[in-house]
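[User] Once you have settled down, look closely at the record that follows, and write a paragraph about the fold.
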Amino acid sequence: MQALIPFPDIDPVIFSIPLGAFNLDLRWYALAYIVGLLLAWFWVVRLVKAPALWAEDTPPMSVKQPEDLLTWIILGVIIGGRLGFVIFYQPAHFLSNPAEIPQVWLGGMSFHGGFIGVLVAGYLFARKNRLSVASVGDCLAITAPVGLFLGRMANFIRPELWGRPTDVPWAVVFPDPVALTCPEDWIGPCARHPSQLYEAGLEGIVLGLVMFWLVYRRGWLKIPGQMIGVFFIGYGAARMFIEFFRQADPQFGNYLNPLGHVIRFGTELDSWGLTMGQTLSLPMILVGLVLIRMARRRA
């Protein structure tokens, strides 16, 4: 079987600048974060410039405040994403090697951790500036699919977070020694689901279009907190579904999920029949439903 989607021959490093004993590299992964954050900032500015989208035609912040919010969000993404990876996936390793915790350039960021970091940063920013926490959160939620799309495309280019072995006609043979290792009874090249592209499509494009429609056609920003709930539900549902096609990461080894059940690489499922990604995403769906109900009751 041949993969119908040839893996792109793209260097993960866009350019490198020699600086004495080491090189300063700009990678696609870093560029995805930078562009995603800048686009998010641009979109928030556009939202606050459209009073008709908000309750009583009053945006939750001034046009200049999104720039300050961007600084808080950058810190939330980096700190939360790294700590999430440390706590959720490799706590024993980093307890033994604490000096590696701040070494983000070596890889290892958790979306769920970064998401929590953004929530905390947005909350602190809103409280510090006496703004509506729910409305600031709505702004952040609406822009999140942009970063998710770019981040998943960067995962594909790297390549990392590939899918399970499959014989579907759109499978991809990833040029990585681990990705090329399939079960002993596998016949032919070890082709896998391009799960990064699945995630870019569902978490980025589909969820983004749904949220765009709710904001500009259904007026959901007029009830603060609703769009936060929509994002929780949309991302959680997309991730729950894609976990059926995504390969568990071998570096995670054996670990405890938040419910306290051991997950072993190879089986990938805990005693509840859930992967780590599903265990973290299921509460997001439930929280999203609660947030929408609470927002409507307040309104």
User: Anything to note?
Assistant: The radius of gyration is 20 Å. The first strand starts at residue 13 and ends at 19.
